[in-house]
Structure formats: C-alpha cells, structure tokens
Task: inverse folding
C-alpha cells in the first residue's frame, strides 16, 4: 500500500447553534494513500463536506489530528494555513466559483499570484493547465461566455495550476448534465491516473463515485463503509 | 503590481455604480481644486506684497478719507522715500458685470514704488503727461479688446463728475504687464491719475483714500508705521499704518476668513462623501463575499484580502481625485474671468499633494470597514452563503 498522504486521528467537529451543540463528525480515523481517488458519499448532513473542509484546511477540527503531506495542519495559524493551502491543495466546487470579472486565464492565474513566479512563467503554467483541461482556445473568455462544463474545466485548471499535492472536489458534477459530468469525471480520472494527483471528491452520485479508486460512505458523522472500485 | 488587474477588475464588476461613485468623488475634488485655487489666489496677494511699502488709512475704517496734507507730512518723515496718494474709483465698464479694480494714483510716485508693474517707457511717459490718461493691465486689455489710443468710458459707482454725469472718459495711454506672470491676477486693474480724478470729482476734493509710502530700510517699516500714526494722533484724521502685507491681510479678513469658509465647505462635502462612498464600498464587498471566500480558499491570507479591498478604495479615490483636479484645471480659466483680480487661479503643487493626501485618507476611512469585514470572513460560512 502507498504511503498515506492524508491521515486523520480521532477527529471530531462540533458546531454550536444557540445553546445547542451539534456534533457533525463523531471521532473519526481515516487514511488516504498517495495517488488515491477517493469518493466520499453519503446523505445530506452526513458530514462529508465538513470532512472535506478539514482535509483541505478550510476548517479546523474540534479535536483530533489532521495530517496532510506529513504536516499537522490542525495546529497551523490562520495565516500559515492559508499559505499551506496555496502550496498543497487545489479546490473544485460544485458551482465552479470562478470570478466573473476575470477571463479564464486570469482565473487560472489566481493561485500563481501568491508565488514568486514571473509574469512569463505564470503565463506558461496557465497555458499548460488550460491545455490539460482542453481549453487552450478559450483562455480569453469570461466565465459567462463558457458552458457549465467548460467553466468547471477552468476551475479544475485553477485547482491544478500550482501543482498541488491534493485535489479536493466538492460535488464537482452536481451542476452538470450526465454527459458533461462524465467528461469532467474522466478528466479527474486522467489527472489521477496520468498525473498522479491524489483526489478526494464529495458526491451524491453513485455513477460519479464509480470513477474513483475507492469509495467511502458516511452517515451521521461516521464512516460506515469503505470499498475499493474494481 | 501583480495584483493590480485583480483590483482593477473588482472595480469593473458593476461599472455604472463605480462610474457614478467615481464621479461623486471627482466632483468633490473639483470643488477642492477650485476653492483651494481661490484661497491661494487670495493669500497670494498678501504674500507677494512689498516689504518696503506701508499703507496708511483712516484709523477706524478704510472708507475714512484723509486730507491731502497728510502726504506732505508723511513724506517729510525720516526713512520715507516717497508717498503716493491713492483712491478707489469703483466704476465699471459698460455693464456692472464688467467690474475690475480701478485706482486713482499719484502716477510717478506710484509707478516708482511698484517695479513689478512693467510697461514701455514711452507709454509710461504718456501717462505722466496726459491728465486723462489711464493704464490697464494686459489681461484687461485682452479681455475687452482695448488698445493704446482708445477712449474708455467708465461708469462711476462712487464719484460723479463735478459738472454732473457719471461717465468718465479716459484715454488709454499704456498697457502694462507684471515682471512675474504669476502676479498678473493681483495687478488686473486700471490706473488713472489722482490729480485729474481729484479735480474732476464732485466731492472729496483735497483728500485721498489712503497713502502708500516707500521706506528706505524694510527693517524700519514697523517703527515708521508707528511714527506715521503718532504724527496724526489726536488730530481729526487719525491714521492706521501697516505694512502692505498686513494691510492686504486685514483687507482680506474684511471679506471673511476665506480659508475657514473654504475648509467648512470642503469639510461638509467630504463628510457627505464618506457616507456615500463608504456605503458603496460596503455594498460592493457584501456582493462579493463568495468571491472573496474563494480567494481565501486559494490561499490568499487575511492581510492580503484586507490590502486588496483597501487597494480598491484607494484606486477609485485616487483616479477620481485626479479626474476632479483635471476638471478644476479646465474650469478655472472661465471662473477666473468671472472673478476680477483673481486671474491667476491655478492648481498649485501643494493643492495636488493636499488632494492626494485627502484621497488616501478618504480611501482608508471608507475602505477599512469593508476591508476588515472581508478579512474576517469565515471561509466555510461564506462558501455556504451565510
């Protein structure tokens, strides 16, 4: 088995709403190996997005340890965590979350602005990322001029342009039709198989989960089933 | 600089709102530029006044006339090199809107004291020898298309002619300029001869409105001023003597504290602008919460988000301020033509620096609350639309 790139030990997450304490994640252990493509499944409110946010360093656990790429990210300050995310994680959202005022290439360039790369180097990386997702010819288009599938491809290019260790995808096909969803999932599969990207994907869609190498089912804040795809 | 396109794009998110807000700010800075130019022009008159000239008026009011005999007594004081009687003519040319200062002066003494007034020697001599002669500033000659040899009818506002009638006709014998072009606004006037004026006027003969004296040593100006006033103490016509600079400043104060008036107007304008721009910035950030959350997700740190929003406010106010100053520069010439004596209205470097300082302060005040809000965004909540 490959080395674990993500390791969670005894992780819990609670929210307080008024006087009510809500336990979103029960004590939870999880290992994700380098090069895995993991599909996190489960009903709404099962805690899968919360788990994804913890792995992606968007949120901090109430207790427990979160190790990603050998770093304990649950102990990092807000600033350090932001810098860690910029180097190690790429995010893909259900609704693409592109900046409408920027062209596709400027959206993809956003993570690179945080690096010390020159303008020319940034442009080269952006062009490569857009080529990988098959949108080299739409670089100057704004999100409103792209289809849903194309916008999601731009979002994927943005997620991988800084060459992160991990891709974190929250319902990446939730807003797409079946055919386009299959294209996006095929792209993620290619990134996993050919570019060695570790991917953690939250999805409701069993067909989408079939593209992953492993599936993990959650319910009421617990991991209830883990399986490997053939 | 690499973040500039991001800041610029954010401003272009809602173009009509950005343009309208920018115009509001530009108008405020247009006012700032215009009013400061007026203030500078007002104060410039006092600043450039000669340090070796004294002005003697009636003790209680500038309108209190003084007997002509005072000139002889002042002239006889040690340290005084020359004295020129002066009067305010107070007329207008053709229409009351064509107002500009006109002074009746003792021609040779007066021109001798004001080397900053320059004109050809031939025209100067013509003024000395023509009793009905008049000199006008080049700016006035250009405005009214006057040339040497013209007869200029002036409607009297204060002084009717001895034989009745209010129209004084002067022969234009010379057109003067100033040694320093910056001084043109202060010398935008007509000079007529005091001897002719005194003889031809219906009343007030043998008096002058004030006397200008030139002193030998500027360092003795204060002492001489006291000496002049002491000379006329306890007489029916007591005097008040100041340096020309102090006199001009005092004269300006009679019009009102221009600086305070301008500061008050601008204070009110910018105070209102704070609410307008602040509200726009708040609204702009509120609408972009998901986008800001995405930036934070990508690894943009809290201080960087703060800087981006502040940069947006700064860029908007700086561009608008410069636009406002540019508009002021274009409008000032036509304003100056409506304000006689202030033809030198310009946007000075200190005004530009001041405007930029105000713009930076303004952007900081209006940008900080939304920038702090953006900085403190919780990513998870913001992405979920809370």
Result:
């Amino acid at each position: 088995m490959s080395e674990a790139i993500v390791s969670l030990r005894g992780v819990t997450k609670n929210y307080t709403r008024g006087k009510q304490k809500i336990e979103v994640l029960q004590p939870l252990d999880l290992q994700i190996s380098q090069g895995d493509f993991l599909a996190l499944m489960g009903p709404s409110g099962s805690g899968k997005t919360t788990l994804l946010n913890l792995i992606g360093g968007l949120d901090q656990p109430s207790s427990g340890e979160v190790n990603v790429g050998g770093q304990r990210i649950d102990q990092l300050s807000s600033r350090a965590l932001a810098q860690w995310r910029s180097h190690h994680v790429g995010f893909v959202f259900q609704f693409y979350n592109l900046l409408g005022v920027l062209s596709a290439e400027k959206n993809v360039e956003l993570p690179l602005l945080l690096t010390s790369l020159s303008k020319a180097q940034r442009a080269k990386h952006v062009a490569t990322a857009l080529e990988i997702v098959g949108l080299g010819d739409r670089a100057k288009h704004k999100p409103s001029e792209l289809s849903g599938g194309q916008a999601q491809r731009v979002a994927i290019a943005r997620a991988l342009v800084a060459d992160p260790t991990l891709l974190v995808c929250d319902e990446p096909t939730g807003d797409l039709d079946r055919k386009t969803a299959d294209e996006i999932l095929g792209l993620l599969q290619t990134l996993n198989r050919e570019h060695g990207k570790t991917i953690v994907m939250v999805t409701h869609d069993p067909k989408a989960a079939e593209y992953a190498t492993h599936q993990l089912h959650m319910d009421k804040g617990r991991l209830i089933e883990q399986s490997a795809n053939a | 600089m690499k973040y500039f396109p991001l800041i610029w794009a954010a401003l272009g998110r809602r173009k009509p709102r950005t343009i309208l807000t920018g115009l509001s700010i530009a108008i405020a800075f247009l006012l700032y530029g215009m009013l400061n130019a007026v203030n500078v022009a007002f104060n410039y008159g006092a600043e450039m006044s000669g340090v070796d000239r004294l002005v003697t008026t009636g003790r209680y009011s500038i309108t209190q006339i003084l007997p002509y005999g005072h000139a002889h007594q002042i002239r006889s004081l040690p340290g005084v090199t020359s004295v020129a009687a002066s009067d305010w003519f107070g007329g207008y040319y053709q229409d009351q809107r064509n107002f500009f200062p006109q002074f009746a002066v003792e021609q040779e003494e007066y021109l001798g004291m004001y080397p900053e007034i320059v004109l050809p020697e031939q025209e100067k001599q013509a003024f000395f020898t023509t009793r009905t002669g008049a000199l006008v500033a080049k700016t006035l000659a250009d405005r009214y298309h006057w040339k040497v040899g013209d007869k200029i009818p002036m409607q009297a506002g204060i002084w009717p002619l001895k034989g009745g009638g209010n129209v004084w006709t002067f022969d234009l014998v010379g057109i003067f300029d100033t040694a320093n072009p910056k001084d043109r606004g202060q010398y935008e006037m007509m000079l007529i001869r005091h001897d002719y004026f005194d003889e031809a006027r219906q009343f007030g003969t043998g008096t002058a409105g004030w006397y200008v004296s030139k002193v030998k040593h500027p360092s003795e100006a204060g002492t001489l001023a006291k000496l002049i006033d002491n000379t006329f103490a306890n007489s029916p016509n007591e005097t008040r003597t100041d340096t020309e600079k102090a006199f001009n400043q005092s004269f300006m104060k009679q019009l009102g504290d221009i600086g305070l008036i301008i500061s008050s107007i601008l204070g009110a304008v910018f105070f209102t602008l704070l609410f307008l721009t602040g509200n726009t910035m708040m609204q702009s950030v509120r609408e972009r919460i998901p986008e800001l959350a995405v930036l934070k997700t990508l690894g943009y740190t809290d201080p960087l988000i703060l800087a981006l929003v502040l940069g947006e406010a700064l860029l908007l106010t700086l561009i608008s301020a410069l636009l406002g100053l540019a508009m002021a520069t274009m409008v000032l010439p036509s304003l100056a033509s409506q304000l006689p004596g202030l033809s030198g209205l310009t946007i000075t470097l200190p005004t530009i620096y001041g405007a930029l300082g105000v713009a930076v302060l303004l952007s900081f005040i209006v940008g900080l609350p939304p920038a702090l809000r953006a900085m403190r965004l919780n990513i998870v909540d913001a992405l979920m639309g809370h």
